[in-house]
## 1
Amino acid sequence: GATGATGDTGPADYRSGASTWAGASARTITFSSALPSTAYQIQITDVGTLGANTSGCYSISSQTTTSITIRPKNCSTAANINAPSAFNWFVIMDK
């Protein structure tokens, strides 16, 4: 059959990976290469269990072109969570 229309170009500026929360400390993720600016979105997905009322709440204390520093927070109390647990991360540039 005939070839369809070409779709939009996908994102070229993103970084992703997996890590583990560092217990009582915030976790700094260093990118494989620098992004063009700090105008990007961050997605965190917990792989392990951090406890009740915690999933999806995070504190981002640093967002640079080469890294992010984050830590999980309790969604109900905003207290720091000091439990080691695996997570996946993804950052993509704003368009």
## 2
Amino acid sequence: MSSVSRKLIVAGCLIGATIATREAVGEAWEEATGAAPPKNPADHGVTWSHALLWSVAASVTVGVVRTVVRRLLAEANEGEPLEESRFTP
């Protein structure tokens, strides 16, 4: 598989996983709080506690899922890590 193909696969998997995870975290937030997650945590209408909780919940969950996806892709590539794409931190 070419280097470009690998980068596209990694980027596509990470972007898809990130979008799906944020949606799931948003739904869990709505179920737990009864309100939609803050679109902009810096907005004056959002309390400090909600802004911080949302930021931590979304960031930690997305970070964990991205790590799991990278590990699964490496395992699928015979245990060798795939090359990083410019879309990954």
## 3
Amino acid sequence: MSKAFNKIAAGLTDAIAIAEGRADPKTYRVHVPDDIDVKAIRAKLGMTRDQFSARFGFSKGDREGLGAAPLQARGGCACPSDRD
């Protein structure tokens, strides 16, 4: 296998370990923006709130009543209300 393939495979293995909580947090850094404009992202993707929620795994309860709360990384994701 090629050197590029091996690097990609190693990166994917690392990403899976991070996502599953098996990686040592001292070995990686995750950048989460302070604010995420969900409405703008939906608009760029051409998705309704229901389509976006279904595609990215948010329930109606995740997005209702949160006002301008920031989107949090999934583990328990809170999708802010982005009123149409």
